[in-house]
Hints:
alpha/beta
Amino acid sequence: MSKVAFITGGASGFGLELSKKLIGLGWIVYAADKDSKAVQATKSFGAVPVTLDVTDHKKTKSTIDSLVKKEGRIDLLVANAGFGNFSTVEEMTSEQVQQIFAVNVFGVEACIRAALPHMRSQRSGRILITTSVVAHVSLAGLGWYAATKHSMKAVANALRQEVRELGIFVSTIEPGTSKTGFGAVAFGLLKEGRSVGEYDTVMKGVNKWLGGMYRISPGPQKVVNKMLRAATAPRPRAHYPASWDVRALKLVFYLMPRRWLDGFILWLAKR
């Protein structure tokens, strides 16, 4: 019997590449994305396309319920849809903050709430949540985005303990500055939409650091390989740092005193 996966953000980036790999292993993959044109293109490699905006909680539930009714089970939920609108804490509008939480937190919540009853009933399943290296630390310009990823790391840790005895595994995938369409757009936003000149110095430093990391960062394949491992390993790990840059940044962030990190950002800005 083929295993069944439901992947949000399945028409681009990590989700698209994971869909292809799982189908190559014989899985049935439902690739969900709000971009209807892109998601229809996933038919070309055998995915079942689903046009879905995860902020529509009722449709998310009905979509997953329909999947289980048709296939008889759901083995893997990949909560991968994400939204990055980067700016300083003050300069990001309330509407933008609500939008980023609507996708990155409450969209994931909707997927988990829809899939979990079915997984409990079948006493098996896996949930993968795409977080980020900024689930461990926050930087200037990334405050609200990092808050959503910190939130999902906390939820994943709690959920993993809650469902362990039910045959359900929960893992987080932690990409860094991977070269995807998401990354290119998100980091570009750090340079745009600025309105408060007093933040120019610190934001210049952040742009230098992240821009340099982005230029030397790996493509999405390393991240996708970790996602595939989490989806298929007999006993998956709780967290999967996706590449060397994530491991290096986590080490720096955890070992470097906060005042040193703050000073380093300002030092970069003045170079």
